[in-house]
Amino acid sequence: MSGVWEYVVIAVGILLVLGGVTVGLLRGRGGRSRDLPEPSGSQPVPRPRGTADHRAGSIVLDRRSDHVGDTEHPSVPRDEAFGEPEVHEVVPPANAVGPALPPAPEPVEQPSPPADRMRSLRARLARSNTAIGKGLLSLLSTGTLTEADWESVEDTLLAADLGVTSTNELVASLKQHVAVEGTTDPEVARDWLYRDLLALVDPSMDRGLAASRVDGRPACILVVGVNGTGKTTTVGKLARVLVANDRDVVLGAADTFRAAAADQLETWGARVGVPTVRADRDGADPAAVAYDAVTAAAEMEADCVLIDTAGRLHNKVGLMDELAKVKRVIEKRTPIDEVLLVLDATTGQNGLQQAKVFSDVVDVTGVVLTKLDGTAKGGIVVAVQRALGVPVKLVGLGEGPDDLAPFVPEAFVDAIVG
Question: What angle do CA 230, 235, 241 make, to 5 degrees?
Fold first, then answer.
């Protein structure tokens, strides 16, 4: 009988040893699984950070907002702002981590820093048709000018969209130079022209962007403009500028009228790891999308939210009223720190009429001039600043993704004069 118990004890011992080994193996596997990161939902993959200082290239992204310490814009709940809620989706970048995404997403792009953009600005303008500089220098360096010559000077400036008032001021200053210092030296004439043109462009204007967090909330930038000026593309390129300067950005696709506008903006954002808030259907209320975008940006603790709006003709009252509504609704959630008006530099004086109407509706704080890759019509810079009293802050120089650059008066005038 004792022999039987001995076998029983041995069998129990073997079972206990095997059980301990099995538990140890299971615990070891469980420990390794805990070392793996948990899925992070729709958060974007950490993007590469820009190395350029945010003041490089004369672009300042922490301009003091006009709404610092503003208590007149209490946040209004969404239901009170709109009534029936709509569903708007936050579209993460294409490389966002999530269980349904491929294990090896493509890396986001690294936008070029502002300093590189400034070199591109100088090179493009230097290669372009400098009709203002060449035409005026050839006249001024003759030493004596007839009335016919001065009429040619005026015609050259007016053809460059400088505007009548600015043209008269510049001609008066140049006449004084010729009367006092009459010269045949082209270098002296170039110095006159550079100094007087720079004064008209006004380098003292604040060309910084309010693109940093304000009082613990994201800065809000509203982008407006007429059809065909490249507004949505400008928003995408501006997002690249901000990413290159270490800003966390959220895009709001409030252009719900143009087919594929939200898709276009989403693609721009995905390329640099920026999420896009968009409607789930075409024709949704653009004000609601804008409201949800600023709300999402606040929840994500982003630095800045960029709101793209539908292009609209400045002489269509109903469309301008819709834009005013977008502005009012956004301000129920957060103050608007920057309103950028996108203008096509090739439209010349027609663009001034557009600018004035938009400024009356949404209080424009800065201008973005697209298609400024030639200086023959460069006088529009002076004209639009005079008309609105706000600076040109950014210029579009071409079709490339990094062809949006800060506007630097000295570089611009230097390229014109040659």
Answer: 120
Take residue 55 and report the two structure tokens written for it.
């003041």
pLDDT digits (tens, 9 = 90+) for 51-107: 323 333 445 566 666 665 565 555 655 555 555 445 455 555 555 444 443 444 456
Distances 308 to 108, 160, 296 between C-alpha atoms, Å? 22, 30, 15
Global pTM reads 0.74
> Taking the mean position of all CA atoms in its chain, how far away is CA 129?
27
CA-only gyration radius of the chain, Å: 30
Taking only the tens place, the pLDDT of each residue in 158-198 is 887 888 888 899 889 888 888 887 766 778 888 888 899 89
Q: What is the Cα–Cα distance from 346 to 372, expressed in whole angstroms?
A: 8
Confidence category of residue 18, pLDDT binned at 50, 70, 90:
low
**Would you say 248 and 300 are in contact if contact means Cβ atoms under 8 Å apart?**
yes
Q: Which helix (H) or strand (E) holds 233?
A: helix 231-244
Range list of H helices, 83-185: 114-127, 131-140, 147-159, 164-181
Residues 335, 250: contact at Cβ < 8 Å? no
316 near 226, Cβ under 8 Å?
Answer: no
Q: What is the DSSP string of 247-283?
A: --EEEEEE--SSTTHHHHHHHHHHHTT--EEEESSTT
DSSP designation for 228:
T
The Cα–Cα gap between 278 and 256 comes to: 8
